[in-house]
């Protein structure tokens, strides 16, 4: 059972947060293990499994990047711990950004660090803008694999930028 099936929502690259939250609370009440204390062992086990699956699904659906990753995994386009090859141009840009970041950190140049954070934020916006229409208009079974591969490229670039931002903390 996929997370989308569990929540009874269509496969989407962006889920409706209000719907997910409401479904989560509804299903939490339905499958909470405490309500199965008098049930058979098989029913208790099923409730525990569904409750665990529900929590994992909610964690994925409340994180936009994890939702993208999950759909790409469902479509067989991404694997756990995949070593995705980013474009040389992107990697060169990241190398220059990392060098500037190291220089700014070594010099404790807060203004330069703030400027680099701003550059990264702008890059994230540009990256998202390039795939916004794919994410917003995604239709399971209709959207092309080529479109999903563009989302995959975005996902890995965003992940790279997130690691750089984390190093600034």
Automatic annotation (TrEMBL):
Keywords: Chaperone. Co-chaperone involved in the maturation of iron-sulfur cluster-containing proteins. Seems to help targeting proteins to be folded toward HscA. InterPro entries: DnaJ_domain, HscB, HscB_C_sf, HscB_oligo_C, J_dom_sf. Residues 2-76 form the J domain. Transmembrane segments: none annotated. NCBIfam families: hscB. Belongs to the HscB family. The keyword Disulfide bond does not apply. This is Fe-S protein assembly co-chaperone HscB. It comes from Parasediminibacterium paludis. It comes from the Bacteria. The keyword Ribosomal protein does not apply.
